[in-house]
Amino acid sequence: MGGGNGQKAKMAREKNLEKQKAAKGSQLETNKKAMSIQCKVCMQTFMCTTTEVKCREHAEAKHPKSDVYACFPHLKK
Fold first, then answer.
1. pLDDT band, residue 19 (cuts 50/70/90)
2. Could you give the C-alpha distances from 52 to 27, 33, 45, in angstroms and in order?
3. How many CB atoms neighbour CB 65 within 10 A?
4. What is the CA angle 74-31-58, rounded to 5?
5. Could you tell me which of 4, 14, 29, 77 has the fewest CB atoms within 10 Å of its CB?
6. Is the dihedral of CA 41, 45, 47, 48 positive or negative?
7. Cα dihedral 65/69/73/76 (nearest 10)
């Protein structure tokens, strides 16, 4: 006959354990790859999900004499 709930739960635990083993490790490499936006004045990097507002805040705070587009040319459209 078929397996009971206990067997299904055991199989699910084993499957999840295998997934966790594969995912373990450092996120540093992934984080480095996500840092794709860079200020051209000071070369500081930002996450790829950084909004235009955050880029403008950085430019105004760190480089008040420079234009926002000098720091982040990708904002020009």
1. confident
2. 25, 19, 14
3. 6
4. 40
5. 77
6. positive
7. 180
Residue owning tokens 């999840």 = 16
Measured at the CA of 32, the angle between CA 55 and CA 76, to 5 degrees, comes to 30
User: What type of residue is 66?
Assistant: S
pLDDT tens track for 23-76:
556 778 888 888 899 999 999 999 988 899 999 999 999 999 999 999 999 888
Phi (first) and psi of residue 21, to 5 degrees: -65, -40
Amino acid type, 59: A
